[in-house]
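Supplementary Text 2. Reproducibility record for the structural model of the 436-residue chain.

All settings were left at their defaults, and a single model was retained for analysis rather than an ensemble. We include the record here because the model underlies the residue-level annotations in Supplementary Table 4.
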Amino acid sequence: MNRVSKSKISVFCLLLFCVSTNAQSVWTIEEVLLAVKENNYDLKAARQNIATAEVLTSKYNRGYLPNLNLNGGVGYSLNGIKQVYNFNFPDLDLQNIQSGNANLGISSSYLLFDGGQRKLRNEKNARNLDFANLQLDNINQLISFNASQVYYTIAQAMYNITILEESLEISRERFSRAKTRYQYGKQNKVDVLNAEVDISRDSLNLISIENDILNLKWQLNQLTLRRDTDYQIDTSFTLMYRLADVSELQSKMESSNKELIALQKNIELVKYDLALANKLNAPQISATGGYNLNYQKYDSNSQINLNRNNGLNLGLNASWNILDGGQRKVQEQLAIIDQENALIQLRTKENELFTQLNRLWNTYQNNLLSLEIEKRNIQTNRVNFELVKSLYENGQQSSVEFRQAQLNLLNAQSQYYIARTSAKLLEVEMDYLIGK
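Retained model, structure tokens:
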């Protein structure tokens, strides 16, 4: 009786949990993906990279603005002069000569021509900005992919809860029937204990799956930065690619996969490195200009009372690095090697993704076939269970046979939902590959 009481307490607690979950709000997959986009720290860091790339593409980093420098200063000096000559010239002895001086200068320079290097650097910075935005999209897609996987795994666990709750209710009915029969001498104590054990096992399985769901929710919260687990998962998803064609998915992958686009952008960036290496020794022409003003004022002890000079300077400067010891050649060769490596990486990734997509597609088709088989299997096991249940209630089947029929139905239902969720997870992975 003590074990029976414990089983009743476990069932009561589980029923209370089920009632509380019914009051929880349903968090849809669309809301989860929106929370990922708005809150995830990895995405926030990627947005900082975009901000850096935007600074590098601003007008202040394009090299088209002139340089302008302003300098000036003031000073004071106290000096003495004594000169003794060898001839019949009077000696010169001046002491405590005070003077003040001031200077002001303005200089400017502007790069007129550098062989096209400035233009190439600006174009490369613009491509880097595109690449940073692409990386943000790629990270967003990857995190959304991970969040979707966890979300539908929780949905699978929610299906299992429904199945286990049904199984627990059946076990409770069997226990009540076995107990009544035992009291009237129509069944032995072993059947009662077996039914009690099955209640405990079903209760523990239900508690275990609830704990798994809680852990999965915290895993989902890590991606969305949600702080609580007081929500439900929408389990009413549909399969999208039942009637799709693999060639259509391959075409979408080639044009929209974020990893492939990133590798293509990388090839473009390497091309700019090669172009810049070719321009490394190009001549440069700069225009310069400046204005300077110097002023000095002396006291009455000095031979000079005032000294002032000013001038305007304009000019052109040209430089051409004709021989650099082979550095330009080295840069060109390295850029060519990088370009070839980038192309190899692109072709390798294309082959890898093509193989992965076809593997996923074949597995997906097998899952769809399994769904139909498992669906029929559920119907067969349900008919068998209802028959065994009727025979058990009439005393024509043992509790062991009844339990086995119950487990067979439970397993068939579980396998169906596993196949259904697996098919959805495969769709999520294919969505990731085609850049959706």
